[in-house]
Design goal:
The complex is a heterodimer of chains A (110) and B (408). Chain A is mainly alpha-helical and 110 residues long. Chain A folds into two domains: 33 residues, no CATH class; 60 residues, Cytochrome Bc1 Complex, Chain D, domain 2 (Orthogonal Bundle). Chain A is 57% helix and 2% strand. In chain A, helix 5 packs across helix 6. Chain A is elongated, with a radius of gyration of 26 Å. With 408 residues, chain B is mostly beta strands. Helices cover 9% and strands 32% of the residues of chain B. Chain B has a five-stranded antiparallel beta sheet with strand order 1-2-3-4-5. Chain B has a five-stranded mixed beta sheet with strand order 8-7-15-11-12. The radius of gyration of chain B is 22 Å and the shape is globular. The chains are: A mainly alpha (110), B mainly beta (408). At the A-B interface, helix 1, strand 1 and helix 4 of A face strand 3, strand 6, helix 2 and strand 9 of B. Strand 1 of chain A pairs antiparallel with strand 6 of chain B.
Chain lengths: 110, 408
């Protein structure tokens, strides 16, 4: 594959400037400005939802949390602790239980 | 076992049709949904039309974006369109404006001539190369793991195949002059964490891998500049390796003399050091190693799960396969639960790292339910397993896919 492409480049070199210019034109990279959507979705209200909204949403929107498979409280606690330790989420240690219990409870009542 | 996303293809098409019909009415778009056929847990996802340079995508997460390719994009197309190519970011600080004149790629560290290059210099002063290669998320298909595992609950659409144009990483490193004693090369992009002290997303490759002549810095994808969400203006292309190494909005290359200890290289994206990264659920007595090479996969793309076909009549089935870290040798199809396998015809060869299309006809002799199975064997003789792998991170799924057909 690489060899095939190189042969094309070589052909362009031999064929002269017209082809080379056309190839160049096709590869002028243009400035890009975009809007990336944000989410205003909040966690459903319940015991612990204030903590979830206050801490989890700093780094990420709620959507992926709400599509996780059913996990018990200790599994959620492991996830919340991973966010604190590996990803430096500013979650006070005393809020970990509240958030884990909230997320486990949210799934049970669904 | 029934893990093919095509179960909901008809539904998606209907929903996309609705989206198209209501394109002008704005908020109605939020009412489009798809159900991913996971065995348990939440299945419903929104179809989003609000992301830049993208057509309707399956919304896994808004911020930072995780967007899945609707599976019908893989039918009858060997290249995945840029505006349907899946999206995955780790941190929410993503650049929204990139000035093509002001952008610089830095090459530094253990080199004799540190570089700070404009895009024009990269495009015009280094040999241009091209390679077609599959980019697949380590956790593609995670939602089908049983028992279920935490993470982005993807169906099978966290993958895509593109023709990448750019320069060899080797040529870039040679331009900078790697000094003796280099052992790894670390790649960083313009994205960043949103909280203090959090680990910036970076990945490293061993120096020999970085200089193998295959690893690329791509500035075009399917003949066009990359969508920003896929890494404009530059993306590392690591053929045959999982997408975690394909650093987006690449702006910094650092040659290292010590092993990279940053979180994303040294701690994250690790798999059990067992065949197929497969362990028994709950087994903690395993060595963990960095994820690396992909494994073979194949998918049927033209019939939905539960589709009705005529008994006793030949039915065309087709799809895609890829060998992982090498080419596709064969694709086989079974309609008798794996007792017998028939080879499928392979489409044009776009190189060993590309999707390879396959096509065949099956005849279901009697009325009733049948399971269609598809199996890829790669050029090294590695075939997809009949039983799924399992690991706690939900990485490297590549079980033989199975689709229910109803002969009438």
């Amino acid at each position: 594959m690489l060899n095939r492409f190189l042969s094309i480049v070589l052909t362009i070199g031999i064929a002269g400037s017209a082809v080379a210019v056309r190839a160049q034109d096709a590869l002028v990279l243009k400035t890009v400005t975009v809007d990336i959507p944000t989410s205003d979705r909040m966690f459903p209200s319940g015991p612990g939802s204030d903590a979830a909204n206050g801490y989890c949403l700093v780094c990420h929107s709620a959507g992926m949390v709400l599509t996780q498979p059913h996990m018990n409280r200790s599994a959620w606690e492991a996830e919340v602790n991973k966010m604190r330790t590996a990803y430096k989420a500013p979650i006070p240690e005393e809020q970990v239980q509240a958030i884990a219990s909230y997320l486990a409870g949210l799934q049970n009542i669904k | 076992m029934i893990s093919n996303f095509t179960a909901t293809r008809r539904q998606i098409l209907r929903q996309l049709g609705m989206a198209g019909a209501t394109l002008m009415s704005g908020s109605a778009l939020a009412d489009s949904f798809v159900d991913l056929p996971f065995a348990s847990g939440p299945r419903q996802r929104s179809i989003t039309t609000t992301f830049p340079q993208k057509r309707p995508m399956i919304l896994q997460r808004t911020r930072p974006p995780l967007l899945e390719t609707p599976f019908e994009a893989f039918d009858n197309a060997v290249l995945t369109p840029n505006d349907l190519f899946y999206v995955r970011w780790h941190w929410a600080d993503i650049p929204t404006e990139i000035d093509s004149d002001g952008f610089r790629l830095h090459v530094r560290g253990h080199v004799s001539h540190a570089q700070s290059l404009t895009l024009k210099e990269i495009v015009n002063e280094l040999p241009r190369v091209e390679l077609t290669a599959v980019n697949q998320c380590s956790g593609n298909s995670r939602g089908y793991f049983e028992p279920r595992v935490a993470g982005g609950e993807w169906s099978n659409g966290a993958m895509g195949n593109a023709r990448w144009t750019g320069v060899r990483l080797k040529d870039m490193l040679d331009r900078a002059g790697v000094k003796p004693g280099a052992i790894q090369v670390r790649f960083n992009g313009l994205d960043g964490p949103v909280v203090p002290d959090a680990p910036d997303f970076m990945k490293s490759l061993d120096i020999d891998h970085a200089r193998d002549g295959e690893v690329m810095i791509a500035y075009a994808m399917n003949g066009e500049q990359l969508p920003l969400l896929n890494g404009f203006p530059l993306r590392l292309v690591v053929p045959g390796w999982y997408a975690t190494y394909w650093v987006k909005t690449l702006n910094d290359i650092e040659v290292l003399t010590e092993p990279d200890t940053n979180y994303w290289t040294a701690t994250a994206y690790r798999i059990p050091d067992t065949p197929g990264a497969n362990i028994a659920p709950g087994d903690t007595e395993v060595n963990l190693v960095p994820i690396s090479r992909m494994v073979p996969r194949s998918f049927m793309t033209n019939l939905v799960d539960g589709a009705r076909v005529q008994a006793g009549t030949a039915t065309r089935v087709r799809g895609i396969a890829f060998g992982g870290d090498t080419g596709v040798k064969q694709v086989h199809v079974s309609t008798d639960a794996g007792a017998t396998w028939k080879p499928a015809a392979l489409g044009a060869d776009h190189g060993k790292y590309s999707f390879r299309q396959w096509d065949t006809r099956i005849t279901l002799s009697h009325a009733g339910e049948h399971l269609l199975m598809v199996r890829c064997t790669n050029s090294d003789g590695v075939a997809q397993p009949i039983t799924p792998n399992w690991n706690p991170a939900g990485f490297m799924r590549n079980v033989v896919e199975c689709t229910k057909l109803v002969a009438v």
